[in-house]
Design brief:
Elements: H1 3-31, H2 50-55, H3 58-92, H4 98-109, H5 117-126, H6 133-157, H7 161-169, H8 174-185, H9 187-202, H10 206-211, H11 220-223, H12 236-261
Helix pairs in contact: 1-12, 3-6, 3-9, 4-6, 6-9, 7-8, 9-12
């Protein structure tokens, strides 16, 4: 097979894979505007915006979205702050237990949440944290912390130590060098960590479903469950409209950060 034929074959294969991923999104775009939306993607028989009108109210979508922003945004900020404080000594100091600690963190990244939910729920009951937004936010931050530490440490490793040594010579402490030298240079990396944590928490259905009992406190990820009625009756049009509203904050966050920080992660010119 010639090189040109191989290139066409690979392109066709990638296009096929892309279509498989795009098929569910195509159903969202067609069903959300169809008055009688079916389960399959099809051109709307009767175009309408009623599906958005029926879900765009405080109880159905706005309150769950607001709860999701509080949970996910809080988890992202807590996780980034904790990851910076944990990653800095791992990146800059020769600690005796650094390698075992990193291996433990790496092991924690692969631990499924379902395996620890029973003891976690028992702990939440003991400390009276069930149905607590703060407790759920802290747990969501803790579940993303191992990956956040690994990512933040790798970003810090890319900052030359000579920059901090210059700050130390001028009398800066370690925390001052971290705040004034290291953090400004890894802002794009911290943004990646924050977005990663936010998206993980935003799409997490299981944890808030178990730990938050009050429907008024549940996020949008759990709100999707309300559209699956008893006896298999599902309002597909409303479900698709709600799914688009549910996806919009993540896409907006990604576009905002990519436009403001795109290509900014470089240390070129930092050392002179």
């Amino acid at each position: 097979m010639s090189r040109r034929a191989s290139s066409k074959l690979v392109g066709a294969l990638l296009c096929g894979i892309a279509l498989l991923f795009a098929a569910p999104l195509l159903w969202l775009l067609t069903a959300a505007f169809d008055a009688e939306a079916p389960l399959a993607a099809a051109v709307p028989g009767r175009f309408t915006l009623d599906n958005f009108g029926q879900v765009l109210n405080w109880e159905t979508s706005i309150r769950p979205l607001w709860n999701g922003l509080l949970l996910s945004g809080g988890a992202a900020m807590i996780s980034v702050l904790a990851a910076v404080l944990c990653a800095y000594p791992l990146s800059r100091y020769r600690l005796r237990f650094r390698r075992p600690f990193l291996y433990t963190v790496l092991f924690a990244t692969g631990l499924p949440i379902t395996a620890v939910m029973v003891p976690v729920y028992s702990m939440f009951v003991r400390f009276d944290l069930v149905d607590s937004m703060l407790g759920t936010t802290l747990f969501l931050a803790a579940t993303s912390l191992p990956v956040a530490i690994w990512m933040t440490k790798n970003f810090m490793d890319g900052v030359p130590i000579s920059l901090e040594e210059a700050a130390w010579v001028d009398g800066a402490s370690a925390l001052q060098a971290l705040r004034s030298v290291v953090l400004p240079l890894i802002v794009p990396g911290l943004s990646v960590v924050g977005i990663f944590t936010f998206i993980n928490a935003w799409g997490n259905f299981f944890v808030p479903f178990v730990l938050l009992l009050d429907p008024a406190k549940q996020p949008a990820a759990v709100g999707v469950f309300a559209f699956f009625g008893q006896g298999g009756l599902i309002a597909y049009g409303q479900l698709a409209a709600y799914s688009i509203l549910y996806t919009a904050p993540v896409i907006a966050l990604y576009l905002m950060v990519s436009r403001s920080l795109g290509g900014a992660f470089t240390l070129t010119g930092a050392i002179k």
